[in-house]
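INFO batch 0412 | record 1 of 1 | parsing
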Amino acid sequence: MRKYNSLNEAIHECFGQDISIAKSTRMSGGDINSMTRLTLSNGGNVLLKTNSYDNIDFFRTEVIGLTAIKASNTIATPKLYGYGSDSDKRIAFLIMEEIHTTRATGGAMSDLGYAFAKMHLADTAKITVDGKCITDKKYGFITDNYIGATKQINTPKDSWIDFFRECRLEPQIKMAEHGMGNGLIKKSLALLDRLDSIMIEPDKPSLLHGDMWGGNHLIRDDGVPVLIDPATYVGHAEADIAMTEMFSPFPRDFYKAYYEINPMVSDYSDRRDIYNLYHYLNHYNLFGGGYLSSAGHIISRYV
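INFO prediction complete | emitting tokens
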């Protein structure tokens, strides 16, 4: 995908030299990026995501993540047109298809479950972005990316447990130490030492969405499920499923369909909270508040 040096350049190159922006409509949603519907002079609409000028890496890594998911040939993602930075407007931007949505019926959630399971079962060694395999070891990703506004470390590892310890929990614990008392810090370090007795290595690595809460999937108006806003990497499928259960679990139709294709081992629930500890710590590091208390309960449970 081409990187552009201005929004106007991107519009002209993607849609035609005689095409311009006729109208901009600010849209709701988006904790990290601003979203705007651009109505073009030819009558078409596209979605513009923007951030501050220095934050172009948000969009570079989002493009790579969505491209990897698309390359798995299992589940739909929005069409991407271009990204870049505009020094005059002082923005970084990503231009993408606007998804027209419909209500999430039971059938649509079943379709999402089937497609999500197929993504997890895809052969990660055969998924490439710009001709490069998405990870040169079993776990990790071709680039670091972001979980919300937090840099997400994706250094490739041969061990899932080592990856989760060193690239997921350790960075978040270090960032959260300023709010932890000595007791919780000691428990956190003890938990890192105990991960080998809590977690398991998967039978195969899976391509993960990485931030699979309810707001990061859509049902297109033709009923097709679409994934958006990923924090993509290769890991254990359990980590994605755990996040779907973190705040408000997905509808039952999703899990029924998912498990028909990719059954989970019986003791998955014993590990679910350890995966979500990463997200509770990240929420605390981003937003503060009671998320540290939730993280503390999980840490104390496992130590």
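INFO post-check: The longest strand covers residues 45-52.
INFO record closed
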